[in-house]
Design a protein that fits this description.
Blueprint: H1 2-11, H2 15-36, H3 49-61, H4 75-85, E1 102-105, H5 112-118, H6 123-133, E2 147-152, E3 158-166, E4 169-175, E5 181-187, E6 191-200, H7 205-211, H8 216-226, E7 241-251, E8 254-268, E9 271-277, E10 283-284, E11 306-308, E12 328-330, E13 337-339, E14 344-352, E15 356-363, E16 367-377, E17 384-385, E18 390-394, E19 405-411, E20 414-416, H9 434-464, H10 471-476
Antiparallel strand pairs: 1-2, 2-3, 3-4, 4-5, 6-7, 7-8, 8-9, 9-10, 11-12, 12-19, 13-18, 14-15, 14-17, 15-16, 16-18, 16-19, 19-20
């Protein structure tokens, strides 16, 4: 007893007294916790609520010979079991992330090969696209600020390549089941309006025409139409005037394409000259006589065997997919002279992996031609050519099975059979078209007369207005 009293006095003296009090309090709390929470000593004894209930029923049923009845669990028990016995992710919908399209804007110096490499696309896909483009030649040449769209699959392989030509048209090459690509195009409808413009010659015809908004192409057409009758450098005088009818296209108010010349009247030293566009793409005078030279049927001096005909509906022999042949192949020996089939301008000179060296010539009106697989090109881009002029030599460039000339004729941008299509070979309006032509001429002449009268009235009003008097003049008076 004396020992305990001494211990108590020692524990209650100084800092040790506080440590003792804390220790005793901890022991007391520990006893309280154990009394409130009595965990099972053996973890194997833990049972789920539903399992325990079933086990209890089984133990009770064992005392009788009646077979155990299936117990009905509560909703809470069922929900608990489902959480424990099922995979919570098995009913989650699997969503495959889609690969976004890649928008690419052409930069100076870009090539298709560089773009494909930059985007990680295979060389095989590039060659497949170029092979499909051989008959259309719409992917090149690349121009700065042109827009391309690349659609890829989940593996990063090319599914579709789209080029936006302008607001009215885009073209695509789409991968098909055979691994190659098929051509598709999307065209938005264009709204066309006609406008009559009157102007007087001031300085020279070129500057006067540019002032009223005519394009270089339209000015060149006017020069070609009337150069046999009018010398634009020597004959025109200040005060001579001209009227034109132009057709403009727009989509939603946005201009599309170039302005097209449809009618012309020009007065030179009191003599009036006229030109009117007919539905065949040729210009005729007031009496219906042709002002546009006719086209040649053949692009060579003699007729060669057609080794592969025009076939817009041709199918690929392996894939069964559309693989049109948009021209005719002429079995020309390498070095054969190739002729321009009409008067026009060289608009493209290029080399294509499959088309080889080729030339594109745009003629007056809606006509143009392509010449592929050439060995030598004898003209330059932008050069004017005449019907029957030698522009190239045939060859065997690109992917071919032998020397030949691939020749295409297009009308308003669409390939046609150059051997059978109706091309301008006559020198006047056909009888069946004269009524339509006369109706259009009458309407255009009235529009131009109205525009000239309005312009003359406007100028008269300006001339009749008194000159404004300045403050200095008023003070002097």
């Amino acid at each position: 007893m004396q020992f305990i009293n001494r211990l108590s006095r020692w524990a209650l003296s100084g800092p040790r007294a506080w440590l003792s009090i804390i220790f005793v309090a901890f022991i007391a709390l520990l006893f309280v916790y154990k009394s409130l929470v009595s965990p099972t000593n053996n973890p194997k004894d833990y049972t789920l609520p539903s399992t325990a209930k079933i086990d209890t029923e089984k133990s009770n049923d064992t005392k009788s010979l009646v077979p155990p009845q299936a117990s009905s669990n509560t909703d809470e028990d069922n929900n608990y079991d489902s959480l424990v016995t099922t995979d919570p992710l098995q009913n989650v919908e699997k969503v495959t992330a889609s690969i976004p399209s890649i928008e690419y804007v052409i930069k100076p110096g870009d090539t298709l090969a560089r773009i494909f490499a930059r985007l990680g696309l295979s060389r095989e896909s590039l060659y497949s696209v170029l092979e499909a483009d051989q008959e259309f030649l719409v992917l090149e040449p690349l121009m700065p600020d042109d827009k391309f769209t690349f659609k890829l699959d989940e593996n990063g392989d090319l599914l579709r390549i789209t080029r936006r030509i302008d607001i009215s048209k885009s073209v695509s090459y789409v991968q098909h089941d055979g691994g190659g690509f098929s051509y598709e195009e999307k065209v938005n409808p264009i709204t066309y309006t006609q406008e009559a413009v009157h102007s007087k010659i001031s300085g020279n015809f070129y500057l006067s025409a540019k002032k009223v908004g005519l394009s270089d192409t339209n000015i060149l057409i006017i020069n070609d139409l009337l150069k046999g009758r009018v010398n634009f450098r020597k004959d025109l005088r200040a005060g001579d005037d001209f009227n034109v009818i132009v057709k403009k296209g727009n989509i939603g108010g946005v201009k599309v394409g170039e302005t097209q010349l449809e009618a012309l009247e020009i007065t030179v030293r009191g003599q009036k000259y006229s030109a009117f566009l007919h539905s065949d793409g040729r210009f005729y005078d007031l009496d219906g006589n042709s002002l546009t030279p006719a086209l040649l049927r053949w692009p060579t001096r003699k007729q060669y065997r057609i080794s592969s005909p025009f076939n817009a509906n041709r199918l690929h022999p392996i894939t069964g997919r559309p693989a049109p042949h948009n021209g005719v192949d002429l079995a020309t020996p390498s070095g054969t002279e190739v002729l321009a089939t009409g008067d026009g301008v060289v608009t493209r000179i290029a080399t294509h992996k499959y088309a080889g060296k080729y030339v594109v010539v745009d003629y007056t009106g809606p006509y143009s031609s392509r010449f592929l697989h050439l060995s030598k090109i004898l003209v330059k881009q932008g050069q004017k050519v005449k019907r029957g002029q030698v522009i190239a030599l045939s060859g065997n460039t690109g992917r071919t099975t032998g020397a030949h000339l691939h020749y295409e004729l297009h009308i308003r941008g669409r390939p046609v059979n150059p051997m059978t299509t109706d091309i301008p070979t006559t020198q006047s309006i056909p009888k069946g078209d004269k009524k339509e032509y006369a109706s259009n001429v009458k309407r255009w002449v009235a529009m131009m007369a109205s525009a000239q009268a309005a312009d003359s009235a406007k100028n008269t009003d300006v001339e009749s207005e008194p000159e404004p008097v300045s403050e200095l003049d008023a003070a002097a008076n």
